[in-house]
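for the writeup, i need someone to sanity check this before i put it in the appendix. the sequnce is what the collaborator sent (i think, or maybe the updated version? ugh). structure was predicted straight from it, no edits. if anything looks off just tell me and ill rerun, i have time this weekend
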Amino acid sequence: MKYEITGKTVPTVEVTLNNGEGLYTQSGGMAWQTEGITMSTNARGGVIKSLGRMFTGESIFMSSYTADVDNAKVAFAATVPGDIMPINVSELPEGMILQKRAFLCAEENVNLKVEFTKKFSSGLFGGEGFILQRATGTGMLFIEVDGDPVVKELAEGEVLKVDTGNVVAFEPSVKYEIETVKGMKNIFLGGEGLFLTRLTGPGKVIIQSQNFSDFAGRIASLIPKDS
């Protein structure tokens, strides 16, 4: 399998497949394809896993695209302005933990399952939901990043505090917790929300420069209300 990521505003990843190779994506994720690609839609992993995906913000059904000939092409596009990052899951024995809506597409041997945060408070107050996703297996995974990606390699015990909506993914070795912003003035006047995500190394962390939920909220606030 070969791939090429093109575009700067709303990028796409175009994958070239040989006969028998395939990828899957959430329903509606495909942008274009050439002849020689067969599509099938199913509740990948069964009913229980598909319901779990619903809670992570993904679609219940997944669409698989399999090549019937060599050099067939299929492309997947980001849903908002930003970037697409390739991750070779084969190089990550414990996989990669993703926030909801980060998954774009992956090879068939990459498994995506629900990942619960270790502390209930992290999920209850974290803003990105109690349920995350863990990608494991072998092959390439492609994730969406809102805005520009920033990759941090945290040393043992190194702490990074991030606005929750700016966290994209992190290795399972990274400890994930939620802490409250200190100071009543900061909480009510700071404009940064009540909670921060506390990530403690070691391990890789992927951050996005744009919190699209906040961006969408600002636009919504400017839309005239019906009188």
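The two ends are 55 Å apart (CA to CA). Confidence is low (pLDDT under 50) at residues 122-129, 183-192.
thx in advance!!
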